[in-house]
């Protein structure tokens, strides 16, 4: 069964936004065992959208359109799809009630404008998929000759939960056999080495299959099985998971799709009844932000420090003037004193520090751009690690955050 993606929106063509929806949908479609041979982006133009949809339906079984479901005149996806399928638009009372409830809930001072009711119109015969994060519902329209159009809203925070909750199960039911998968997430090891460690499995794989995905500072392996039901699939997947544990051991931090590295670290801190603080220079609060992204992080994190200047490192963290003069702000010695000083100032059991040269300027032959030191204080002991990243400023800072979390995790699992 083939699926084609059409991303709708002039802002995509102009480069005003990055089309993350297409990347997300393509990956999820592959995981579901469906084939995707074509993707396209089309602006908010009725004629060109109609042409793109007709072409897609001529060569694919299912066309997923994202975007263009809003209340304004240039939101044309629903209208064009109805035209191509030969359906008229009718008002859906259920959707109208949900739109009214949404505006009541947010207590809009301006009330509901007339164009909002446009979102309650659906192609006759379409199945409505409720949007729990916005007002535009998703739609599934099944036509002749086994052709189907699936319409999804454009905002990523709406399309992703809708796809996971309703569209993925719908697509899975269309398969003669279901596709089931587990994600094995690995840290503390590079992509090349990780893939080399499982190359024999990948060469010999049939069912289940193993596919690596490189992430910033991590490697994820998706184990996918095709089976008649979930129980049978789990029986196929389990030996592969056990083999991966044999090879990667505690470098695997989760086998749950939705668990992040920072969530795994916060959970470890909770298990060990420990608190943590952060002291950041080049990352400027990104590390603290990653930890704060975790619901319930307040149980382990009370305060942190952004010490970009040398004066701040001395004043807030107690880094010695001699260390800064002799070793420099970007050094293992400074990272160690930052971590120990942060733990003392915050009264925390653990602390992470980051100091480095993110770029694009500020590097030298001795200390090039991308040089980062991470300090990790746990129960009175300090460990430092040196890293040399080769990305741009944003990438170097992102990698530094992941490496810091990884170092803390390594220390915690040894307790």
- Number of E strands: 17
Helix content: 40-55%
**Which ranges are low-confidence, i.e. pLDDT below 50, for 5 or more consecutive residues?**
none
Structural category: alpha/beta
Q: Give the termini separation.
A: 50 Å
Strand order of the largest sheet: 2-1-3-8-7-6
Helices, by number, come to 15
Question: Biggest sheet, open or closed, and with what strands and sense?
Answer: 6 strands, mixed
Rounded average pLDDT: 95
Instruction: Report the sheet-strand fraction.
Output: 15-25%
Radius of gyration: 26 Å
Shape: globular
Protein architecture, described:
With 415 residues, the protein is of the alpha/beta class. 41% of the residues lie in helices and 22% in strands. The protein is built from 15 helices and 17 strands. It has helices spanning 10-13, 20-31, 46-59, 77-84, 93-106, 156-173, 191-197, 199-204, 230-248, 261-271, 286-292, 310-317, 321-326, 332-346, 393-413, and strands at residues 3-8, 39-42, 62-66, 89-91, 121-123, 127-129, 138-142, 148-152, 178-186, 209-215, 218-227, 252-254, 276-280, 305-306, 350-356, 371-378, 381-388. A six-stranded mixed sheet has the order 2-1-3-8-7-6, sandwiched between helices. Strands 14-13-15-16-17 form a five-stranded mixed sheet, with helices on both faces. Helix 2 (20-31) runs parallel beside helix 6, helix 3 (46-59) crosses helix 4 (77-84) and helix 10 runs parallel beside helix 15 (393-413). The longest helix is centred in the C-terminal third of the chain and has 21 residues, at 393-413.
């Amino acid at each position: 069964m083939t699926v084609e993606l059409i991303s709708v929106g002039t802002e995509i063509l102009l480069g005003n936004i990055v089309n993350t929806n297409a990347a997300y949908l393509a990956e999820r479609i592959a995981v579901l065992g469906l084939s995707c041979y074509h993707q396209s982006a089309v602006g908010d133009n009725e004629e060109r959208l109609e042409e793109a949809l007709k072409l897609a339906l001529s060569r694919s079984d299912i066309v997923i359109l994202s975007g263009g479901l809003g209340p304004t005149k240039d939101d044309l996806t629903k209208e064009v799809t109805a035209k191509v399928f030969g359906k008229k638009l009718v008002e859906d009372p259920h959707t109208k009630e949900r739109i009214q409830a949404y505006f009541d809930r947010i207590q809009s001072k301006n009330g509901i404008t007339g164009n909002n009711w446009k979102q309650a119109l659906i192609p006759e015969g379409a199945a409505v998929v409720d949007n729990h994060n916005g007002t535009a519902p998703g739609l599934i329209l099944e036509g002749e000759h086994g052709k189907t159009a699936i319409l999804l809203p454009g905002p990523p925070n709406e399309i992703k939960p809708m796809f996971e909750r309703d569209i993925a199960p719908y697509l899975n039911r269309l398969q003669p056999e279901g596709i089931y998968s587990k994600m094995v997430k690995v840290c503390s090891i590079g992509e090349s080495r990780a893939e080399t460690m499982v190359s024999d499995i990948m060469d010999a794989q049939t069912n289940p299959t193993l596919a690596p995905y490189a992430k910033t500072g991590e490697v994820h392996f998706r184990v996918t099985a095709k089976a008649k039901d979930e129980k049978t699939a789990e029986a196929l997947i389990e030996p592969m998971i056990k083999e991966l544990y044999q090879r990667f051991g505690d470098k695997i931090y989760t086998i749950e799709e939705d668990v992040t590295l920072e969530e795994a670290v916060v959970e470890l801190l909770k298990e060990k009844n420990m608190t943590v603080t952060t002291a950041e220079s080049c990352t400027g609060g990104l590390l603290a932000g990653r930890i704060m992204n975790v619901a319930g992080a307040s149980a382990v994190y009370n305060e942190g420090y952004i010490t970009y200047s040398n004066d701040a490192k001395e004043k807030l963290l107690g880094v010695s003037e001699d260390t800064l003069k002799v070793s420099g702000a970007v050094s293992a010695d400074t990272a160690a004193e930052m971590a120990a000083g942060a733990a003392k100032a915050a009264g925390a059991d653990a602390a992470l520090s980051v100091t480095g040269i993110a770029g694009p300027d500020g590097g030298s032959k001795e200390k090039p751009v991308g040089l980062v030191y991470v300090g990790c204080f746990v129960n009175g002991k300090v460990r430092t690690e040196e890293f040399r990243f080769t990305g741009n400023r944003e990438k170097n800072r992102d990698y530094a955050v992941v490496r810091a979390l990884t170092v803390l995790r390594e220390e915690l699992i040894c307790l």
